[in-house]
Specification:
About 25% of the residues lie in helices and about 30% in strands. A hairpin with a 5-residue loop joins strand 2 and strand 3. It has a 5-stranded antiparallel sheet, sandwiched between helices. A two-stranded antiparallel sheet has the order 2-3. The longest helix is centred in the middle third of the chain and has 12 residues. It has about 150 residues and is of the alpha+beta class.
Length: about 150
C-alpha cells in the first residue's frame, strides 16, 4: 500500500482529462487535449514513495498550494487521477522510463532537474497496460492502484 511505503522507487500518475487550458507555474497556460496524461516521477528522495502518497492525497483532498508542475494539473477540475503505477527500486530510472513513454509530451513539464524534454505524455486511450509493460521492460515489478 502506498501510504506505508518508505522505500525508494519510481512511479507514474495516470490522469483522465477533458479538453482544457491550465496555468502551470512558469510554463504559463498549457492547452490539453481530452484523453489521458501520464506523469513520470521519481521517489528517490528522503521520503521515498511517500511522495506518491502525497500526490494521491492531493488529488482526493485538494486544499494545498501547487508545489510542482504536476500539482497544477492534479488540482485542476478538468483532470482526474485514475491510476498509479509504481515500483520499488534504488535505480535512477525516471528519465529512462520517460524516454520510453515519450510521445506528444508537454515541453518542459516536470523535468526542470534533468535534460529530458518532458515527463508528461498524452494518450488518447487508457495507457495503463503500456506503462506496466514499460516498467517490466526495465526489470521492475509494477504495482497498479486504481484511484477511487
Amino acid at each position: 500500500m502506498i501510504e506505508a511505503a518508505k522505500d525508494k522507487g519510481i512511479y507514474c500518475l495516470i490522469f483522465r482529462n477533458l479538453q482544457c487550458n491550465v496555468r502551470v507555474g512558469s510554463l504559463k497556460d498549457i492547452s490539453f487535449e481530452a484523453g489521458y496524461h501520464i506523469y513520470v516521477g521519481s521517489a528517490q528522495g528522503t521520503g521515498g514513495l511517500k511522495r506518491l502518497y502525497r500526490h494521491v492525497m492531493l488529488s482526493k483532498e485538494g486544499g494545498k498550494k501547487a508545489r510542482w508542475h504536476v500539482d497544477h494539473i492534479n488540482l485542476d477540475e478538468h483532470f482526474e487521477l485514475v491510476c498509479t503505477v509504481y515500483a520499488v527500486t534504488f535505480e535512477q530510472l525516471e528519465c529512462i522510463l520517460a524516454g520510453a513513454l515519450q510521445s506528444r509530451g508537454v515541453q518542459g513539464f516536470g523535468c526542470s532537474d534533468c535534460t529530458c524534454k518532458s515527463h508528461l505524455f498524452y494518450r488518447r486511450r487508457d495507457p495503463t497496460d503500456e506503462v506496466v509493460k514499460n516498467f517490466r521492460k526495465y526489470g521492475l515489478e509494477p504495482l497498479v492502484e486504481e484511484i477511487l
